[in-house]
Amino acid sequence: MTIPLERDIEGSLISGSAESVRGDGPHPVDRHVGLRIRMRRKEMSVSQERLAEALGITFQQVQKYERGANRVSASKLWEIATALKTPVAYFYDGLSDRDAPASNGDAAQDFMLSTDGIELMACFPRIAEPAIRRKIVELVRVVADEI
C-alpha cells in the first residue's frame, strides 16, 4: 500500500490527498497515458492482439493499459512507443501539471475511450473542409444543449 503524498519535495502542502483526487478509479495520468496508447494504436490501425504480440504480453494486458486499470512501466511504455513508431513523450501530450491531479476530464476521457469516441476521433480528422468540421461541431453543441 502506498501512502499518498501530502507535501511536494519542497515541503509545500499539496491540495487534496491522492484519494480525494482520484477516488476509487485509476489515476488521471494513467487514464491519459492509456487513452493516448489507444488513440495511437487506432491511428495506425493496429489491433490489440497485434500490439500485444509485438510486446510479448496478452491482449488483455493491452486492454488494461488502455483503460488505465494497470500502470504502464517506463520500460513497457518505451516498448509501446517503439512498436507504435512514436516518441514516448507522445503519451504525455496534452497533460499539464494542473491536469494530473484533476479528474474534471473524466467524462471526456470516458467518451474518448468508448467505441463511439474512438470512431469519431478516427473519422473527424478525415473531413478536410474546415467549414464543414466547424458546422459539425456546432451541430453537436446545439443537440447537446437541447438534451
How is this structure best described in words?
By secondary structure, this protein is mainly alpha-helical. 56% of the residues lie in helices and 0% in strands. The chain contains 8 helices and no strands. Helix 2 (28-43) packs parallel to helix 6, helix 3 crosses helix 4 and helix 6 crosses helix 7 (115-123). The N and C termini lie far apart (43 Å).
Which overall shape is indicated by the principal axes computed on the Cα atoms?
A: globular
Low-confidence stretches: 16-21
What is the average of the pLDDT values? 82
Percent helix, as a range, is: 55-70%
Number of helices: 8
Question: Largest beta sheet, briefly?
Answer: none
Note the beta-strand portion. under 5%
How many DSSP E strands?
0
Rounded to an integer, what's the Rg over CA atoms? Answer: 18 Å
Give the helices and strands, then pairings.
Elements: H1 18-22, H2 28-43, H3 48-55, H4 59-67, H5 74-83, H6 106-113, H7 115-123, H8 130-146
Helix pairs in contact: 2-4, 2-6, 3-4, 6-7
Q: What descriptive keywords fit this protein?
A:
147 residues, 0% strand, globular, 56% helix, 8 helices
